[in-house]
Design goal:
Strand content: under 5%
Order of helices and strands: HHHH
CATH superfamily: Hemerythrin-like
Number of helices: 4
Number of strands: 0
Shape: elongated
Oligomer: single chain
Largest sheet: none
Distance between the termini: 14 Å
CATH topology: Four Helix Bundle (Hemerythrin (Met), subunit A)
Radius of gyration: 16 Å
CATH class: Mainly Alpha
Bound molecules: fe (ii) ion
Length: 136
C-alpha cells in the first residue's frame, strides 16, 4: 500500500472508532438524562462528547482534504454548526446544571444523526468507491 493510501486507511480507522465512541456517549447521555435525571453526570458526558466530536471533525476534515472530496464546504459548515450548538448547550447547562434534561440529549442525538445522513454517509460512499483497495 502506498503512503497516501496508508494515511487515508489510518484516518478511516480513527473516524470509525470515533463514530462508535460518539454513539456510545450519546446513548449514555440519553440514559443518564432521562432515567437518572442526573444533571452533573450529563454535563460530564456532554464534555466528553464535545471533546470526541472535535477530534472526529478534525480527522474527518483532514480525510476530505486527502481524498480531494468535492462537497467539503457544506460538510465543514455543518461541522461548525454542530460545534457552535454543542458549545452553547454546554455553557447553558454549566450555568444551570438542573436545566439539562432528556430533550437536550435528544436534540444532540438528532443533530448527530442528521449530519451523518446528510454529510458523512455520502463522504464514506465516495471514499469506498475511490479507495476500494483499502476499504473492507
Ligand atoms: Fe462529518
Amino acid at each position: 500500500m502506498d503512503t497516501h493510501s496508508h494515511i487515508v486507511s489510518e484516518l478511516l480507522k480513527s473516524v470509525s472508532r470515533e463514530h462508535l465512541t460518539i454513539k456510545a456517549l450519546h446513548y449514555e447521555l440519553n440514559e443518564v438524562s432521562s432515567i437518572l435525571n442526573n444533571g452533573n453526570a450529563s454535563i460530564k458526558l456532554l464534555g466528553e462528547l464535545v471533546s470526541v466530536v472535535c477530534t472526529h471533525i478534525e480527522h474527518e476534515e483532514e480525510l476530505m482534504r486527502l481524498v480531494r472530496y468535492k462537497s467539503t464546504l457544506p460538510h465543514n459548515e455543518s461541522h461548525n454548526e454542530i460545534i457552535r450548538f454543542l458549545t452553547s448547550m454546554t455553557l447553558e447547562c454549566q450555568r444551570n446544571v438542573s436545566q439539562f434534561h432528556y430533550a437536550d440529549a435528544a436534540s444532540v442525538a438528532r443533530w448527530i444523526c442528521e449530519h451523518e445522513e446528510e454529510h458523512d454517509n455520502p463522504l464514506y460512499e465516495f471514499i469506498k468507491s475511490s479507495y476500494s483497495h483499502i476499504c473492507m
